[in-house]
Amino acid sequence: MKRNAPELLAPAGDMTSLQAALDSGADAVYLGLGSYNMRSRSGVNFTCETLPEAARRCREYGAKLYLTLNSIVFEGELAEVDEMIAFAVPYVDAFIVADWGVAAMCRRHGAAFHMSTQMSCSNSVAAKFMKEQGASRIVLARECTLDEVREIAAAAGVEVEVFVHGAQCVAESGRCFLSHDAYGCSANRGECHQPCRRRFLIKAVDRYTDANGNPLHDADAEFEVTPHTVLSAKDLCSLPFLDKIVAAGAASLKIEGRARKPEYVRAVVRAYRTALDAVMDGTFTQELASRLVEDTKKVFHRELGVGLFFGRPGADQYTAKEDSLATEVKRHSGVVIDYFAKAGVAQVQIQDRALSVGDHVQVHGATTGVVDLKIESLRRDDETLERAERGTWATFPCPRVRVGDKVFLMETVAFSGA
Question: Three-state DSSP class for 161?
């Protein structure tokens, strides 16, 4: 019997990313409403005003929409969370929750809910129990191996979802207290400042003394830990073994990255869409996977790894680099000031980086999403240009974009990502 294709689930931190996800082939999108989720930061959330439009776009594409409500919720916040659920029910297909009280509210409102990976579901008994409480899907703990995913999916009788790409947290199921201890900003409330991604020192704090209590050594010695990112986990990339995850019975393949940029969403969703389609039609190969991995390396990423799919705790799970290893970076060039639909030409005011014929550019916009192209020609009225400098304007052939969209020059960097 032919297996149904798993759902490809994409992150969206704003409307541009949402549109990029839909255009790139996502079957579903997950987002937050600004609070009570694991990315409760401005700029990576939607609002009550923008949620209806997000829902409309998803339905237009035949995609599902999930709302994250997976942070810790305290007693005085229950009424606000309940109001948020009541408001969102007409617009979303399910809520992603990590609190039994929030799950109970979803049940009361007749809303479907998925249990977040924050619940640390790592066995079939727990999954069955969550199903009995009304959960329609379980996002498994990231600590589960591939064999465990297979066993839980077969035994639990409920959909299971697994993360396939993106940032990994050093703490079990992402329940970390480093940010809270260091800055008073709790990761469990969506406020993580990511101290784990930084450099660390070992510093002596004691003083040896002689029999008379006189110091023998000072306490000023300090050493930088090498590699210094001792708590920074590698990013997960499962493209090389996506066929094995599908065979294990995962119902949904989740891409991490609500805080990442639209070009990341576009590149990663496109790569996994291509890979998943190939798995389902029997054309998936390691050569294809390798090419797709290189495509994902163009956008923000740390060193790539396999997560814990092949064993715990993982002997090679930490990155030696604290910075992004993206092989392309975007530089702001200008803004679209007109679009001539019949000619298929965009007029761009050059505000920063100059543009030349042959340049790789992207156009980003809340309605447009992400348009990726190579400039084939540049014109200004009847003049043919090779280069358009800052402070001038130029036109070039371009798929449909909108006035106000931002134009970025995509530059290749000198190093190759890991």
Answer: strand
